[in-house]
Design goal:
The chain is an alpha+beta fold. Helices cover 30% and strands 25% of the residues. The strands form two sheets. A four-stranded mixed beta sheet has the order 3-6-4-5. A two-stranded antiparallel sheet has the order 1-2. It is globular.
């Protein structure tokens, strides 16, 4: 599935979720985290099964943040890139006046993903989000926009 189609699909799901959510109070802009008891508990791995957005909330989309520092330099180390990408995501959230607990959905892209990278990913997402873990999808990819990039994270944010 192309990236553009995937983005449209995710945006459509978020819009449909907002349209059918009647349980949330329009003044309560907190996300509702859902981890059904009859499914595997994903929280130890740094994500939630589902997140319900409040009715009437505005949605912001943060483009993929890679591991480039302020000069555009990329460390060759995967863990360093992940840490920097989450720092960049935090800066993007600050830029729109949002907090990590307003992130409903993350999509992460990992070049040449293997199980050894999960610990790094889980550690960083838990450090940023604590107990309010967003829904998340990991997409293994052969490469990203710039050859040395090994990781990228994009976010869907509910604004107050």
């Amino acid at each position: 599935m192309s990236r553009a189609i995937r983005h449209l699909f995710i945006e459509g799901l978020i819009i449909m979720t907002m349209a059918v959510s009647t349980a949330a109070n329009a003044r309560d802009h907190k996300l509702t985290i859902v981890n059904p008891k009859n499914l595997y508990d994903p929280s130890p791995n740094g994500y939630s099964t589902a997140v319900i957005t409040p009715a009437g909330a505005r949605v912001a989309y943060i483009s993929g943040q890679g591991g480039q520092d302020g000069t555009g330099a990329l460390s060759p180390d995967f863990a360093a890139q992940v840490k920097q990408a989450y720092a960049n995501l935090r800066a993007a959230l600050d830029g729109i006046g949002a907090r990590p607990d307003q992130v409903a959905k993350l999509t992460v892209f990992v070049v040449d993903h293997d199980m050894s990278k999960l610990g790094v990913l889980t550690e960083n997402v838990k450090e940023m989000f604590g107990e309010t873990l967003p829904a998340q999808t990991l997409v293994p990819v052969p490469k990203l926009a710039i050859d040395p990039m090994q990781f990228e994270v994009e976010a869907v944010v509910i604004l107050e």
